[in-house]
């Protein structure tokens, strides 16, 4: 991948490099992604790339800036598994914003301070677009998830494989039709604004008579027999039986002892559709995994009143390239691949309880645990290949077989690597050895069958051996005939808390991308259920940031702030006095980054014909939002007209109804923070290299304006 931007060495090279790197991942932003072929310069081999993480792994990032960018993206991916495309794009957009500020003559320290201040203000403002997850569940109870379209549900999911003996799949919930009730609030300009009842969000009231009195409004909905309350006051003088608690995130939550809320698997439909971001097929697999975990939790608790939780640490993937995508499914247990030569062995062990030993580490003759210190006083008396007899590995292999025979073990699960000769000899004696299992898999099997993991075979005793695991083919051998990579098998036992998503694709080059998409969807749903809140998606959050920064910039200009020619960099109050003067320009440049983000999002989503049309469309809504006096109220009102957000309403007239779109909260916030931190780090480093900061500080009176370039 060649960066199309020419680097000007007379300017801040680091910021230019960030912009060039970020431009390569522009097509990965939004639900409609375009894959790339990355070709090696030496061997001319091509790799198909479909995500930001894989792109940066394939590029030769030898520069310091490139390595910092790669580390930032990796940190985001390792923690959240999502938000990397947003991070990469914002790095490029805000690098350009910082360059624009430098061209305007804004000092580096002021750029860093105002940009940080602006982003912190945006993070506080977007809290008004957070929706509690239980509101999403309630909406499924009270109305159709997608008006005019058949609502998908977990019960009819074709990807779910329920083991025999498991409980039935919950039936589809009978969705009720309820008219959307509207609440009236007042914006900063005193104009009434209509908000849909579903959001149930507080709107800031900073001016007018309503603010001093503490605006309160409630609506009684006959169809669902519940109350929606919108308030800005800290004091709740209510006399009903329900308790309304103001949470730290700004939402109101109702608690009532008489009517506790319980939800069913079908209530999860709207949330999963909204978090799929267009990848419904992959999210269906994740949805099925949640249902399996929920069923297991219901069986353990004896009822189905347990809250939705999604433990991704007990979910695994098994990739089978070369098979049709229709074979992708989710099943209880652990699916792995064994050599084709093991088919006869599997047929002999199938459908019978197996005694199992769990080995931590590698199962090889030379393996020693971490921290092992080999004796140093051993001397070799004779070392000759002419000496006939069994080798040390053969003696070790025979010893392992003797131990397995002694305790009647016919299944060995190993966390690390396995000796090939041992695997072959165990197969001859009708014993199956499976290696490369994760620590979570070992722990799950240990809990289910009562086995105790050991480090060495010499530690095996009767108390360490578990029983009750069964092995079977994941699919019939005829369906996977022609696969040279191996045969998939399923290891399961009663009560096992493991779920495997079997991912298949007819094109092997797309296999990695499909697995990445699965984990992205899985972690989106995981964090949504864990945090119990989501953002309104479809660009609503970023649009609020753009509108909010525009208002802040205009407010700074209206105060009459302008640069003073008498400022001296070496004065103690220099930074504090210069912030108001440069704040409007920096805030506008920061808002320009959000503008570029929304424009690229619309172009990649195929919701506008050109980038010019996208920018015009965004500007139109920005003007309307700022004129309304309350951008958050404007967004909520526009969002209620079309579920997918204001950026689809002008270009999707043929689609009468679009599913609601949601975003997860913390990963998005962290992507913003990491992007700006990286830009400011490179900005400050560039300025130090260009100006020689230490020398400039000592001679600030002489160099004057050359301190910041």
UniProtKB/TrEMBL annotation:
A biological-process GO annotation:
photoreceptor cell maintenance
| Molecular function terms, GO-annotated | ATP binding
In Swiss-Prot or TrEMBL terms, this protein is called Bardet-Biedl syndrome 12
* UniProt organism field: Spermophilus dauricus (Daurian ground squirrel)
